[in-house]
Specification:
61% of the residues lie in helices and 0% in strands. By secondary structure, the protein is mostly helical.
Length: 551
Amino acid sequence: MTLTSACRDPEVGTAARWRDAVGGAWAIPAVREGTLGSCFIFVGSLTPAFLPEDNAFTHVWLLRELQHGAGRVLATAVLLLGVLILLRAWLRLHPRDDGVDIGRATLALWSLPLLLAPPLFSSDAYSYAAQGRIVAQGLDPYVLGPGFLGGDFAEQVDPLWFWTPAPYGPLALQVQHGIVDLMGNNPYASAVGMRLPAIAALVVIALLLPRIATALGRDPRFALWLGVLNPLTVLHLLGGAHNDATMIAFVVLALWLATKRRLVLASLSVALAAAVKQPALVAVIAVGLLCAPAPSLSRTAAWTRERVVHVAAATAVALGGFAAITAATGLGYGWIGAMHVPGDVRTYLAPSTGLGSLLELLLHLTRHQVAAGLAVPVARIVALTACALVVGWLVLRRAPREPVTVLVVIFLLIVVSAPSLHPWYVLWGGLLLGLTSVDTARLRCATWLTALFACYGVIDFSVHNGLVAFGVSGGLALLWVATGHDRELVHLGTTQHPRRRAPEPVGAASSRTGSSPVGAALSDRRRGWRKGRTTGSRVQPSWRDLAEREG
């Protein structure tokens, strides 16, 4: 019995299948390389940049040296090296026609070294813990900031968010409250414990994303590689313990239910996602359109009465579900008044804030002080207005034909036009990108952005370890490019790592095989073969074998 057949034989137990899957993944050099990179990231994170002053690692021989002097610089270099190794391993694992399904096992191997690491590349997990503590004390997190608590719970919160109220949905805050209680009100354990919902979310995404891809006629292995195995997913959603992972998981669940035409359940899943982070509510458009009956071919690009009714029903159910969740949590709608919080801090990654700040500087230099004060607010308003107009056009003209693609684009537009932008925000749409048609240019852009944001997190946080550490990080990044390691970003289709045949939309295969019964049967068998490889059913022969049998 081959490795692939053993992993999919229903008579083999779950533990045995996982053992075989992990063993098969470990046999691949790129998987071992990525695991090594995760181990380096774990070691490199044991510095004051990520840990509270009083931490258990100060009592561990050798590791405690990473928190002082030259050890901090060395740890920062190790951290960046680990990120570069993980990035290279991910690129080398671009899906191949070798019949080995390593996606979920690879995710497990790459994630294990990071589970006990401190929150990575962000202090948000410490803010989550403080907000959970505020809820546990019966206070209003939409009014009070972490600074109200004082003591250990407030110590590691980023000073920028010290006095700001929580902008998250009520479900997110109650989950944070539950984790704080579970961890015995220990501040650091509570922050690390914020990974628990992130782990559950990634399990859901890893299970359902390939199934959605299959239902949409996309390559499930490519969707898993581009979204779930992406270094940004591993480093930020898991390593950073961001609640964005939970939001995305509920959106993925909603899309999967929508492919099954389960309108009410899919809409309730959107409500759960919006109760974590409110922008997820836009997913009702894709849910309603996927659940609507398909019209005649002559009207596939138009809004029909059935489609309007289904989207309206999905919206009503989602809003009703959101209201019910809010009432059950008892936290109310204070997040509406806190929506300004993410924009209170200038993050120059956001195009509107970056360009507005540059214009503000130029106006200050030319002594136009009044206009300079308006530069950033006006730039943000222009960006949000442009976003609203483009989203409206996409919904009216493109959504009926490509609902999931439009959802991905809307998420990315919201991220790009928002007043603040952080690397993990890109995953709102980026993690779902494999569900759309991705040509070579878009794939190259996605991989370059992944590399940029992955390195940015290290270099940005290295400032906490001093200017020398910042210089070492920048120098290593330049050295990595100068020695040609970034060529994997461009040459994804080499003979060593061949790419899969481009995915086709559902029903498009018949145009290649012709209208003959043999061609139609072959198309159906190809789709069944792809589905069998990803859903755990028995192994199907390759499409080349089927073509030879058909004569």
